[in-house]
Amino acid sequence: MTQYQSFPGVNGASESLAKLKALRLPSFQGKRFLDVGCNEGFFCGYARFDGASEAIGIDKSRVAVSRAQVRFPDCRFFAQSWQQLPDGRFDVILLASALHYAEDQAALIHRLMDSLSDNGTLVLEMGIAPSGKSEWVSVKRSIDERLFPSRGKLAEILAEYAWKIVGYSVQQAGDPLSRYVVHVRRQRPFVFLLLESPGSGKTTLCRTLFAKAKVPVVSGDLTYRKLSGRQIPASEALASVICEDFSPQYDRVADKVLAQGLAGDLVEVWCRQGGGGEFALDSYVPEKYQQEVKAAFDERGYVPVVLNWEMEKSMSGPGDAAKKASRYAESLLDLTASQSTVAAFQVKRVSSPALAQFFSGWHLDQPVNGQLLTEHEGFTVSGWALPSDLNVEGVRCYVRLKGVTQVFKLEKRREDVVKLRLKDQPAVPETLAYCGFQFSGLRKDELPAGMEFGFIVNGEEMPAARVGISQCTPGKPSLSRKFLAGVGARLWRRR
Ligand SMILES: C[S@@+](CC[C@H](N)C(=O)[O-])C[C@H]1O[C@@H](n2cnc3c(N)ncnc32)[C@H](O)[C@@H]1O
After folding, report:
1. pLDDT above 70: residue 111
2. Domains of the chain, CATH where assigned
3. For this chain's UniProt record, which GO biological process terms are given (predicted)?
4. Cα–Cα distances in Å, from 234 out to 216, 224, 226, 283?
């Protein structure tokens, strides 16, 4: 047998070490390797050296195989044709300088691909004929004449796989063709992962780019909603975490599910929703879980493509929004405390049996508890009152200010009140639509001691509300934080 491979002290026809460099083999750590047409086992030896769990070489030459076994006792070698391949699947398969010996080269490539693991790589080292057509070209060599594929023919054979010519290989003396290294992998569907936080434009991108490209989109929000109603299958662990206290705050749901270590279960559901082919996923995944999610897609045979883009987010996270809102509330308190020209009303309704008996309802629209009034604003009292007896007429209102009483009529039309309060009454007298009142023109500085508001029915006064006013003076803010936080009554008492 002519010496083909080169080892220290043995020069073969092939510069094996240079070829090894050109092959750009993937890392072998923990992988199964098969070398088809292994000769004296140079590459099997390398695979074990690089951490392969198993390295098997086959060659039809008994001499080559027996030499290989002596050189590399922890590899396994078989003297057999590539018509029959060893059992099992391999992570890396090498066919170097041998394809042209096969009777049916395309069939050999497909058989080798069938023996490859899902994520495996077939490494071909081969001559490619320089032709613009897709054809087999017969090439005379010093030792024989063989068929070599053109680039187009190779593309045709490899059409169903993902493949790449990674570069030139080392030339051998008398080579009529250039040699190339080609890496071939099983084509796996892409999953486009749009995992950015809410408001970053994921859904818009899906509606535009992916819709146009006819790539189906799986919506994370919709998946969570379906899972919350147990409308789609999922692991019990995932379903129960989602169903427990479900609320459609999907970023929180995502956080909760992933914090429970359920990335794999969730990815399983997404894959089913995706239908087994290529799809885009529109679902927020916090950054700390993104690697885990990517790995889970990888394990399920997908090529995960994470899409990142710079865009100002239109929405901050719920935690952020709440923090900012509280800071703003604080700043509002400071701002209001520094304003010296505003006044605040405190309205207290008086409850009396006479009022309750006479009116089915009444309301002061203005002033409102805590309402601020600027220096230039007039002070208005307005509202409505409906007597229990719908036929009663002649109800009046009054305001009493510094002992002076001003009386005014109910003469404003209030369809809204009639519609809301009297919708069930069979016959409502037309006059009752005029149940509203409005009294303007008072100045706030006329109210230092507060005002009384009430009704006059049959000449009898019925006090209905007391209205106080607290005025801020420069440098002496009287609007306390607590008041502004809603405890207006305190201010009233302080006055
Ligand atoms: C040019 S050598 C290449 C050796 C090795 N792959 C390398 O690149 O160093 C081709 C090898 O393929 C082997 N071979 C040829 N036809 C074969 C077949 N049908 N089955 C298995 N091995 C075969 C030969 O015995 C030879 O060792």
Report:
1. yes
2. 16-186 (3.40.50.150), 190-306 (3.40.50.300), 342-471 (2.60.40)
3. methylation
4. 21, 11, 10, 17
